[in-house]
Amino acid sequence: MYKDFGKEDVVIGISACLIGEKVRFDASNKPSNFCNKELGQHVTYKAYCPEVAVGMPIPRPTIRLIKDEQIIKVSRPDGSGDVTTAIKAYGKKIASISKNLSGYVFCAKSPTCGMERVKVYSPSGDPLQAQGIGVFSREIMKANPLLPCEENGRLNDPILKENFVARVFAYRHWQAVVESGVSKHKLTSFHAQYKYTLMSHDLIAYKQLGRLLASEDITVEEMAEQYISGLMTALKLVATRKNHANTLSHIQGYFSKHLNKDQRKELSQQIDAYREGLMPLMVPLTLINHYLLEHPKSYLAQQAYLNPYPESLKLRYGY
């Protein structure tokens, strides 16, 4: 079940231009509709613009990633105005004070904030493979490898958007556990709540993490570190329709003694229709949640899979 955090409790880092600040090279912004009008109702943003932070003016000359032999720097197209060292230093500074972040949304294609596939050029200006990473975003992700990160452009994909938001709230839930003091019991309880979430993403990881929690050979602190690493790695894998359908079928088994023949048939048909791409995930989930109200199951009621984030986001309606 979704843990009802207050808006101020879920803090997400974000490129300042994405929330409307006019900090881009041409004094414009690049507001994200989803971040501002939808997700912004449930989270608090901490906005950063590394280029402005290191003293670059608004407006300013454009900068790009330039690869000279094996060294990548960020500077103006002619190689002047190199800000690589300053941007890296600022990235390290923000990374060191951002342990309370539960996610980060970067501005795509930016030589400072791009998360992936940023254009890289040769010193002579020839385009190379677009496989660069922004100098600032690289430092954030390197220092916080478990932090859910995404780019504004990729958030237009309903599946990637849902995956990102689910990871943010799962990670925030974990942070709350850590804040309260980790114990073996709390780890076991947390894992129990994410059983079906893990199953829908990576069944192997689910089994491995279960075995980890059964271990008696490591400390609780080591166990917690390995557990959250395994969880966030698994959740980064986009859950397939096949995995979702198999997970829904597992959940259906809890109601086998309570549903009549027609009800069981209807639920099975909805799960199969979802598996085949004929209806969105929300359809079988709505029926399962309905049966859960009629036939309460405490173990199911605590499952994050059924309500991973605020329902008003409606992220499972589109796929």
In short:
With 319 residues, the chain is of the alpha/beta class. It has 13 helices and seven strands.
Describe the fold and architecture.
The chain is 45% helix and 9% strand. The chain is an alpha/beta fold. It has two domains: 149 residues, no CATH class; 163 residues, no CATH class. The strands form two sheets. It has a four-stranded parallel beta sheet. A three-stranded mixed beta sheet has the order 4-3-6, with no helix packed on it. Strand 1, helix 1 and strand 2 form a beta-alpha-beta unit. The radius of gyration is 22 Å and the shape is elongated.
Segments where pLDDT lies below 50 for 5+ residues?
none
Largest sheet: 4 strands, parallel
Give the distance, in angstroms, between the N- and C-terminal Cα atoms. Answer: 21 Å
Structural domain tally = 2
Radius of gyration: 22 Å
Number of helices: 13
Mean pLDDT: 95
What is the general shape?
A: elongated
Give the topology string: H per helix, E per strand: EHEHEEHEEHEHHHHHHHHH
Percent of sequence in beta strands:
5-15%
Helix coverage percent of residues?
Answer: 40-55%
Which structural class do the helices and strands define? alpha/beta
Which key terms come to mind for this protein?
three-stranded mixed sheet; 2 domains; 13 helices; four-stranded parallel sheet; 7 strands; single chain; 319 residues; 45% helix; alpha/beta
How do the strands and helices of this protein lay out in sequence?
Elements: E1 11-15, H1 33-38, E2 44-48, H2 50-53, E3 64-68, E4 71-75, H3 84-96, E5 103-106, E6 120-121, H4 135-143, E7 149-151, H5 158-180, H6 184-193, H7 195-201, H8 203-214, H9 220-236, H10 241-252, H11 261-275, H12 282-294, H13 298-301
Parallel strand pairs: 1-2, 1-5, 3-6, 5-7
Antiparallel strand pairs: 3-4
Helix pairs in contact: 3-4, 5-9, 7-8, 7-10, 8-9, 10-11, 11-12
Pfam families: 2-thiour_desulf, DUF1722
InterPro entries: 2-thiour_desulf (IPR007553), DUF1722 (IPR013560), UCP037004 (IPR017087)
Domain DUF1722: 195-310
